[in-house]
Amino acid sequence: MNKYLNIIIISFFSALTLALKNVGYVFFIPIACFFTFSNPKNILLIAASSILAILLYDYHHVWSLLIVLSLITIYTFVYKEKQYLINLVFILLVNFLSLSFLLKENKDYILNLIFSFIGVALYSYFTYNMEGIAHSVRSRNFTYNEVIMAIISVIGATALSVSGINFALPVAMFFAMYFSKNQYPLHSVFFSLISMFFLRFVFALEESLLIPFVSAFYMFPSFYAPIALVCFSLLGILSKMDIFPLRVLEATIVVCVFFEIVKTTIVSAKTSEKIIKNVYQRATENINNEIISFASFLDLFSKKFATTKEYSQKLSGGINSLTRNYCEACYVRGECFSNNKGKLYDYLKNMILYSKRKDHGNEDPDFLSFTKLCPYIVEMRKSCMLINERLNLSAVATKANALVAQLNGISNVLRQFSVDNALKTEIDYEVFANIHRGLNDYGFNVCYFEVLKNRADDFLIEIGIKGENYMNLKPIVEAVGNHYMENETSCIFKNASRGKTYVNLVPKINFEIEYGYGALAQEGNNVCGDNYLIKQLNNSRLIAAISDGMGKGYLAYQESGNTLKFVDEITKTAISTETGLQILNTFYFIQDYLEKYSTLDFLEINRSKGELTFYKMGAASSYIFHQDNSFVKVTNTGLPFGIEEMIEAKKYPIQGGDLIIMASDGIFENIDSEKELEDFINGIKHLSPQKITYEILNYARSQRKKGGDDMSVISLKIIAAQD
Asked: Residue 549 has what DSSP assignment?
C-alpha cells in the first residue's frame, strides 16, 4: 500500500475530477481517507500533490481543497479509533459539505446527497478488499483498489492538456504498464479496456486505442516489454500513422522510459514464483542442516554413554581407593591439589587404565610435574597395577557395543542421506513449467504432468496425453524436452488406458539392453538359495543383482530373497543408488546378530551416460566382454552384505556390443580353469543373452569339479541405440 509514487499520481489526478460537472471531491475524498487512515504520514504526499494539481487546473478552488484536507487531517489525528461506521459517516458529511457549501455551483442538495453516497460506497469497496486480504479471502485483492483508483486518475487527468496531448493518455499508459509488469494480466486488460472506453466514447480521444497495445506489450517478460513498445512507437512515427499522432507516440516513448526508471519503486523485484523457489531452496538447506545436527548429536550421545555402568563403578572405586590410601594423609596434599585443579581425577584414572604401560604420560608435562611432586608415586603405581588386576577392568566390556553401533550406524545413515541431497544439482522448476506449456502450445491435451525426479543428470517426468498414440507423440515430446532441457531427452512408453497415453521423459537413452537369467540348485536340493533381480528403473537406468544366501536350500533362498527385496524397495526412492545401498548396508551392519548373511552382486547401468557401476559385497567375479574379444574382470574385494561399514563402487564405460556376465560362486567353484571359461564365453557371445546364460550353466555343470553350490547367471548385452 505504501507505493509512494502511485499515491502521488493517484492523489494528483483524482483531485482533478473536480473538473467534472457536479462531482467535486466525491472521488478524491474516499481515496484520500483510505490512504490516510491506513498510514497518517500519507497525508503529506496527498496534500502536496493534490494542491499542486488544483493550482495547475484552477487556483480558485485551492481554499475548498485546503478545507477538505484539514478536515481529513483533524479527523485522522483526533479520532484514533477509526471505527468503520464512523468513518462512513465522516466521508458522507465531508462529501456533502464540499458539494453543497464549498463548491457554490452545486445547489441541488438531493443530487449532492446522491453523489455523497457514491463516495461512501467507494470507500466501503476499498475497505472491503483490504479486509479480504486480512482474512485470506482470495477473491479480494488490493490490486482491485488500485484499478479503480487508476481509472479515476485517468478520468481526472482529462482536465489537463499540454502541447495537444491530453494527460489522460500517459496516465493510462503508466498504469497499464504497472499492472502488466506487476503480473496482474487480467487486471491490466480490464483497466486498459475500461480506460479506452471512457476516453474514446466519453471524452472523444481517438488516441486511446493505443492503451490496450501498451498493456499487451508489457506482458512480455523482462526487457522485451519496453523494447517492443518503443519499436512499435518508432514504427508508427516513421510510417506516420493517422490514428496515432506523432506527439502521442513520442509521449508513449517518454512514459515507457519513465516507467523503466521508477519501476523498481512500485513493482516487486521478486515475483511470487521466485519467492517460492527461494523458500524451497532454504527449506531444503535447513532440512539438510537439521539432519547433520541430529547426526552430530547421536555421535555425541554414543561417545558420552559408550562406557558401561559396571565399568564406571569399578573405575570410580579404584580411584577412591588411591585417594583414601595415599592422598588423604599426604604432607604435600595442599600444594598438589592447588597445582592440579580439575586434573587429578584424570591422572589417577589413566594411571589405573594404563598401569602396564611404562611410557604412559611421558609426553604430558603437567602429568610429569605431578609425578615429581608426589612422594608416593612409586607405591601408587604398584597399587594401580594391583587395582587393575583385582577389578579385572580389561575383562569388563568397555563399550556398550549394541547401543554405540546402532547410534553410530543411524548417524552415518543420516549423514549419507544429507550428503546425497546436498550434492544434487536440481533443474530449475521453470524448465518443467516450460515443457508443460510447450506441450499444450503444440495442441496436445495434457491430462497428467508430474515431476518425480528433478536432478540435472537424473530427471523423470511422467506425462499423460489424451487422444494420441505413442508413436505420434514420442518425437514431439522429445523435441519439446530437448528444447528446454540442457541435456537431450528420451520419451519412454509407460502405459495406455481409456484413450490416454502415459509416457516418461528421461535423459536421452543411448544404449538398449537385452538380458537373460538362469539358476540351478545344488544337487540334492529342490530350492536354489540364490535370488536375482533385473529391473528397468523409471528413468534411463537398469539394475541387476544376484544374492547368495548363507547355506543351502530354503533358508538360503529366504535370506537372499530378503536382501534383494530390501534392495528393490530402496531403489524406488529418490536417493542415489550408491547412497541407498550404503544406507541399507549400514542397517544390516548394526544388527545384533551376524550369523545370517548373504552376498550381494549389484550392477547399475546408466543408459544415458554409457556407464556401469559394480557394487560387490562378498560376490563372485563378473566380466565385461568387448566385441574385439578383450574383456575386463571385475573382482570382489569386500565381505558379504552388512559385515563391512563401507561399500566400494567400481565404474566402467560401456559400448555397443559389450556382454556383461554376472554369476554366483557356484559357477566358479564348479570349473577347473577360469581361463577356459573366459574363452568359452568369448566364443558364444554372439548368441542371445538367454541362450548364453543356459550355455554357461551347462558348461559349469558338465565340469563336475565338486558337488557344487547353487549356480546363478545373469547375461546382459549392450546395444547402441539407433538415432
From this structure: B
Q: Are 538 and 460 in contact (CB under 8 A)?
A: yes
Strand partners, 545: 533, 602
CB 115 within 8 A of CB 92: no
- Per-residue model confidence as pLDDT tens digits over 205-239: 888 889 999 999 998 877 888 898 999 888 888 88
Q: pLDDT band for position 688 (50/70/90)?
A: very high
- The whole-angstrom distance between residue 22's C-alpha and the CA centroid of its chain comes to 58
Three-state SS at 111: helix
The residues, ordered by sequence, that sit 6+ positions from 696 with a Cβ below 8 Å of its Cβ are 518, 661, 663, 667, 677, 680, 681, 713, 715
Residues pairing with 714 in the sheet: 517, 662
Torsion of Cα atoms, 221 then 227 then 230 then 231, to 10° = -120
**Cβ partners under 8 Å of residue 268, min gap 6:** 182
What band does 138 get if pLDDT is binned at 50, 70 and 90? very low
Going edge to edge, which strands form the sheet with 541-548?
Answer: 530-536, 541-548, 600-606, 611-617, 649-653
What type of residue is 489? Answer: T
Grid coordinates belonging to 591: 544388527
Cβ neighbours for 320, distance < 8 A, ≥ 6 positions apart = none
What is the number of H-type helices and E-type strands within the chain? Answer: 26, 16
Contact 116, 95 (CB under 8 A): yes
The C-alpha cell that represents 94 in the structure block: 465531508
Phi, psi (5° rounding) for residue 46?
A: -65, -45
Residue 703, all three cell numbers: 565340469
Residues 381-389: contacts with CB under 8 Å, at least 24 apart? 381/351, 381/355, 383/321, 383/322, 383/325, 383/326, 384/318, 384/322, 384/351, 384/352, 384/355, 385/355, 385/356, 387/318, 387/321, 387/322, 387/352, 387/355, 388/318, 388/352, 388/353, 388/355, 388/356
Name the DSSP letter for residue 81: S
**Burial code of 108-142, b = ≥16 C-beta within 10 A, e = fewer?**
eeeebeebbbebbebbeebbebbebeeeeeeebbe
| Strand order across the 711-720 sheet | 511-520, 711-720, 659-663, 622-625, 631-634
> What pLDDT does 443 receive?
67
Cell 574383456 belongs to 631
Tell me, rounded to whole angstroms, the distance of Cα 288 from its chain centroid.
Answer: 12
For 599-646, the pLDDT digits (tens) are 888 899 988 888 999 988 878 889 999 999 899 998 877 677 666 656
Residues 6+ apart with CB under 8 A from 106: 22, 24, 99, 100, 112
Residues ≥6 apart with Cβ < 8 Å to 219: 180, 185, 188, 225
